[in-house]
Amino acid sequence: MKINPAIANEFSTAAFRFGHTLIRDKFTRYDENDQKIKAINFTDMSFKSDLAYNIKGEGIQSILRGMVTDKCKKFGSFGFELQNKLFGKIENNEFTAIDLLSANIQRGRDHGIRPYVDYVKICHGIDAKDFNDLLPLTTAENILLLRNAYQNVGDVDLYPGSILEEKISNLGLVSSTFACIIKRQFADLKNGDRFYYENGPSVNPSAFTLDQLAEIKKVTLSGLICSNYDISSLPQRVFFLPTFENPKVSCDNLKNQINLDLWTGIL
């Protein structure tokens, strides 16, 4: 059976925009000595590269140090900056900005995304005819919010319905319906692409050898950041906060994680 690896509309238009709910209003920054310096608002740096290229050493490195040290926002919550100040400008003495939550909902309608209940049925087998049918996925408080915004459960848009769901677990980032859509998308991207890097020579004649694959899998995101930015230390598991179990280590120990000698002389 052939698998289509194309990007699904509901993935790009709704599910993979879950990250918008994780964005902080303010970004803490740290200098090269891991000392806090002045925080910056999200909208003060969006599409503004001068902060990243600050020659005083308070540029992109200071922002990255803050991002790996601070928690993101809780899934399902939208910051003040994203709802009231995004792409803000003053014209004719009047301030205007974009509400990203509203924009995401409108984008789903522009793209013809099906109602939230359709994906609830596809992903969970729940045929929701009433708001209370959603109780296995969310709370009574969130259902009340949906009732106040929509006359019928069949009118609920995919984006707000999904971000009001409870997360699968504390180890995950998204709700169950978004997780369902994202999982299917990445499975299609992997299984529908013969050039996927783990495929063997029976599928891809130019496949990596097992030794090359083993080297590739040694590379971590912390190692990539250390190799490309002027940062002295990072947690080994950079997606997790630095703790006693996940301490910061010297970038000297995280760089050059791959032995490129296995690729020499193959061309």
From TrEMBL:
SUPFAM superfamilies from the UniProt entry: Heme-dependent peroxidases (SSF48113)
Enzyme Commission number, as recorded: 1.11.1.7
GO molecular function, one term: heme binding
Pfam families the record matches: An_peroxidase
Key word Oxidoreductase present: yes
Location(s) in or outside the cell: Secreted
Sorted UniProt keywords: Glycoprotein, Heme, Iron, Metal-binding, Oxidoreductase, Peroxidase, Secreted
Residues bound to heme b: 20
Top-tier EC class: oxidoreductase
A GO CC annotation given for this chain: extracellular region
InterPro entries, per the entry: Haem_peroxidase_animal, Haem_peroxidase_sf, Haem_peroxidase_sf_animal
Protein name in the entry: Dual oxidase 2
Lineage summary: Eukaryota, Metazoa, Spiralia, Gnathifera, Rotifera
